Amino acid sequence: MFLIERLSNSIAIKVSKTLDLDAEKQEVLAYGAFSLLQTLWSVGLVMIFGYLFNVFWEATIISSSGALLRKYSGGGHATSPNRCAIIGVIMSVGPALILSSLPIVISIEYVYLYSIITLISSYYIIYKYSPVDSPNKPIVKEATKKRLKKASFNVIHILILVIVVLCIYYYRDQNNILKNIILSICTGVLWQDITLLPLGHNFITQIDTFLKNIFSLIGGEIA
Fold this sequence. Notes:
mainly alpha
């Protein structure tokens, strides 16, 4: 059992004993604790590597916007929490390195176009594929699926509002940092959308297998 899984189960057991919860509620609590700890671990690693590569804000925004949508839409999974976190670092810091120089050389019109294409695509992908559950935690109830899908759309609506506000401020200040934030938000959403697609599942599986083989070669399985 992975460390994060052990911690989440331990938290759930202690809270359940304190509050006298039944086994079903304890399982829900353990799942919630696991999701929170995994998110904190993943975003924390992104922040560390983002700082080391001098793209702290870009990487953090990409990771956070994707994680916010992922909380409700689900997505493709690696087979261990740590490999999932490593994939998150790669797919946040990598694009951040590219985005860090783009706002200087591209116009706001291209930023708008990228945002519109990304968000419209996100509507379609969420409608068609969300929520994507985990093999270990399948979503059985239809009501739960509808609730998560609706919540995913609400996240997109919130991000659209944020982007519109940033665009208004950009017209006032002409600050390239604002373009960078918009690009980072949309890139986080785009990556999360990709993880909902069958092609995205296959891509994550390929990276997961590659990382598993690499760590096996250099001294053992990474938990």
